[in-house]
Design brief:
This protein is of the alpha+beta class. It contains five helices and nine strands. The protein has a seven-stranded mixed sheet. The protein has a two-stranded antiparallel sheet with strand order 6-7. Strand 4, helix 3 and strand 5 form a beta-alpha-beta unit. Helix 2 runs parallel beside helix 5. The longest helix has 19 residues. The protein is globular.
Length: 158
């Protein structure tokens, strides 16, 4: 599992508009990466809406925010438009970043085992080093908690 102090792994993923995002593009400012299972499910929708609602506060603090799931770019674009999301959504269809971060895991529902994303959020500093990791995220209040921790990172308290 990914931990505090780990460097952001190398990746090259398309966002919901088709633009490619890499860690090199993100260097120079702190960023949040929230990893979620699937577009348009209730928890994932609530989480994406919460981060979108707080995006102006993150931006005011100089922090970029990205969502990431294994859904394709086209599905991300529909999800973004349907819910008027303002945060970029990264597509990891090959699950390379998700596996590297250790969030592509075996899950179980109603006795059926399957592979899926364990909802996780990582806060990186301007050098791409993880400063906080939230595992098995519960959505209510999470985006607000990440914002507060992000602000303390920028203020030098992290």
């Amino acid at each position: 599992m990914f931990s505090v102090g780990d460097a952001c792994p190398n990746f090259s993923l398309a966002d919901d508009s088709g633009a490619t995002v890499t860690p090199a593009d993100l260097r120079g400012s702190p960023f949040v990466l929230f990893l979620y299972p699937k577009d348009d499910t209730s928890g994932c929708t609530q989480e994406a809406i919460a981060f979108s609602a707080l995006l102006p506060e993150f931006q005011k603090a100089g922090i970029r925010v990205f969502g990431c799931s294994p859904d394709p770019v086209k599905k991300h674009a529909k999800f973004r438009d349907k819910h008027e999301l303002t945060i970029p959504l990264l597509s990891d269809e090959e699950k390379v970043l998700l596996q590297t971060l250790g969030v592509w895991v075996e899950k179980s529902m109603y006795g059926r085992k399957y592979m899926g994303v364990e909802r996780t959020t990582v806060l990186f500093d301007a050098n791409g080093v993880a400063k906080a990791v939230w595992e098995k995220v519960k959505v209510p209040g999470h985006a607000e908690e990440v914002l507060e921790r992000s602000r303390s990172l920028v203020a030098g308290e992290a």
